[in-house]
Task: structure prediction
Amino acid sequence: MNLTSGLIDAKTTGPIGWLIFDNQSKLNALSPGMYEDGLEVIQAYEADPAIKVVVMRGAGTRAFISGADITSFNKTRSDPVAAAAAREAPNKLRHKLIHLEKPLIAMIYGYCLGGGLGMALNADMRFASSDSQFSVPAALRGIAYAPEGLKQLVDLVGPSVAKDIMFSARRLKAEEALRVGLINRIVEADQLEAETIAYAEVLAANAPLSMKASKYFINQLGLEQHERDDARMDAMQREAEKSEDFKEATRSFMEKRKPVFIGR
Ligand code: COA
Result:
């Protein structure tokens, strides 16, 4: 991996690939260069068969991500050309995360704001510390939040809660975030990493083709019927049915042992 920003870290622990936003002096704000490096990391994990699950987090425990780097706004949002160019890398990363063919978990400590919440919405699941806080302060910063990101928010919490979050720009504490469906679980901060790893290891032991198909199908269900790739969905079902892993699952059940999946 050729990471150049100095603000993205990657490490692997067993079957887990970590994507770490490490801009701690700005509470892990998303600065230029981080998106490109993030993409590089995700592409490497995607290509590595030893990586079964990806977890993204902010460095330290004060923040997941405090949003876009406000100090870079003069450069990145000053005119329409600069703004369009500045959107390209975030869009590429967003697309790659959403379509990553492996489970992706966001592990969230502390502040998860603005573009940081947007980043977390790209994950399949969000596990958050009990002191985590969520908001989209666009209405405080004069920003018209991008519709693609809003769609992800609406898909999770529905239009009315999304409007509450956007209009008020208020902070939701972890309990409310859980109640409205923004996050999947709340864990005490000192247990969050261990619980996330334990969960990721459960996924890592499951059949990769099965999870890949579920992720693809669930993403497809968010599209209109005529936009769905029925042929690909059908092919993925056939692929799973014919896979070694399908046979191994049946065999291991008969033999009363745990299956060992190989992803084909
Ligand atoms: N962009 C750039 N720098 C940021 C940042 C951001 N999004 N969020 C925090 N920082 C910087 C602060 O400027 C501060 O830098 P300094 O030490 O050089 O003064 C440092 O991170 C620590 O933040 P601080 O405000 O001192 O911590 P806090 O605990 O009092 O407050 C926040 C934390 C997150 C509530 C507050 O920093 C904040 O409101 N940040 C902006 C959040 C935001 O609007 N994000 C969406 C942008 S569209």
